[in-house]
Amino acid sequence: MQTHRFMKLTLLLFAIILLVPFQTAQADTGPKPSMDFTFKQEMAGAPITIVSGILYECEQADCSDAVPLGELGPQRFYCDAESCGAVAYGFSPYHRVEIEFSDGKTRTSNIFETAGFDSKYTVTVRPEDLLVESQFSLGMFPRTGTFLVLCACLCMLGLLVVGLVIFLIRRGSKS
Question: Which of 30, 72, 124, 127 has its CA 20 to 30 A from that of 152?
């Protein structure tokens, strides 16, 4: 009787050990929206560099509800001396950047909208503020989406060429 109970306890312990994972599970949610900011200076004199920056996220068009983009996993706003970028799980519709420069000034940008999945912006550094303008690029779609759109366009072009050739051959044979 005692051995039977010991066997049941051993099997139960063995089952529990099998159910407990030995490694933690990791998952990636796939590509994340991004923003790239290229800076150009409108001011005369020695070029200035970027010291730090903040990307504000806004739901309201006037950015009255501005909140800095939080740092969570890969989500963050980052800058080097000449450019800035952001990766997020999702962006709000409106934004504003505030950048501190090597000349000791902190400049704030105009309010701008998200330009796409992989947004590209040109930031003009002016004496008192920043002007952010979106750049058109095929980066509006995720890289996979861009590839699929390009393939669809090429297929459509191919079908048009084949249709034109068939049309011309049939038309030539009727004459």
Answer: 30
How far is Cα 81 from Cα 70, in angstroms, rounded to an integer?
21
Whether 42 and 113 map to the same domain: the answer is: yes
CA–CA dist 121, 131 (Å, integer): 10
Once rounded to an integer, what is the mean pLDDT over residues 156-164?
Answer: 81
Query: Looking at the chain, which runs of residues are DSSP E strands?
Result: 34-41, 50-58, 67-68, 76-79, 83-87, 94-101, 106-108, 112-113, 118-125, 130-135
CATH number of the CATH domain containing 101: 2.60.40
Quote the CA–CA distance of 121 and 80 in Å, as a whole number. 16
pTM: 0.63
